[in-house]
Amino acid sequence: LPEDESTLLTSQDLVPIYKRARKADQRLVFPKLIKQLVMSYRKSGSADQSHTVLSSSLDLCLHSMDLKYTILRYVVWIIPTLGFLGTVIGIADALNYVGAGTTPAAQLLQTTTQKLSVAFYTTLIGLVQSGILVLFMNLIQSIEERAINRSGQHCLENLINRLIPSS
C-alpha cells in the first residue's frame, strides 16, 4: 500500500494491490484484510462501506484469535484447582493420621505438620504455575492483538483514506 502523503487510489489502482494480496499467505491478517477491503470497495464504490467492512473484519479477527486461547484458559484454571484439590486431600490425610491414634504423641505433631505442609505446597505450586502461564498467555495475546490493530490502522490510513469515490 502506498505510504506517501499524496497518493490517492482509484478502483483501477486496486487491481495490482488485490493480486498481490491474493498471492500472499491467507493465514495472515494483513493480506486477508486488503482482499476484503478491495473487494468491498470494488463492489460498493464506497469508502464508508469499506470502513465498515474493516471494522467488522477486525472484530472477527480479534474474536477468532481470542477463541484460540480457550483450551489454554481452561489449563490456567485447572492448575490451581488441582492444587486446591491436593490441599484438601492432604488435609484429609493429615486429619486421618491424627485421628487414627496409633502414633506416639511426641511424633504426632512433627508428622502431622509435614503432611499439612505438603498439602499446602500443592496449592502454592498450582498458583505459581498458573500465574506464569497467565503472564505468558497475556504477553502473547497482546502481541497478536497489536499486530491485528496495526494491520487495521495501516489499511485505514493507506487504503481506505486514500480511496477516490467512484463516479
How is this structure best described in words?
It contains 5 helices and no strands. The chain is mainly α and 167 residues long. The longest helix is centred in the C-terminal third of the chain and has 54 residues, at 105-158. It has helices at 14-23, 29-44, 47-67, 70-100, 105-158. Helix 2 runs parallel beside helix 5. It starts with 13 loop residues before the first helix and ends in a 9-residue tail after the last helix.
What is the number of helical segments per DSSP (H or I, 4+ residues)?
5
Beta-strand share of residues: under 5%
Helix content: over 70%
Overall strand count: 0
> What characteristic shape results from the CA principal axes?
rod-shaped
Note the main sheet: none
State the separation between the terminal residues, measured CA to CA. Answer: 22 Å
* SSE string: HHHHH
What's the gyration radius in Å? 29 Å
Spans of 5+ residues with little confidence (pLDDT < 50)?
A: none
- Label the structural class: mainly alpha
On the 0 to 100 scale, the average pLDDT is 92
What would a concise description of this structure say?
This protein has 167 residues and is mainly α.
Please give a handful of descriptors for the protein shown.
167 residues, rod-shaped, single chain, mainly alpha
Strand and helix layout:
Blueprint: H1 14-23, H2 29-44, H3 47-67, H4 70-100, H5 105-158
Helix pairs in contact: 1-2, 2-3, 2-5, 3-5, 4-5
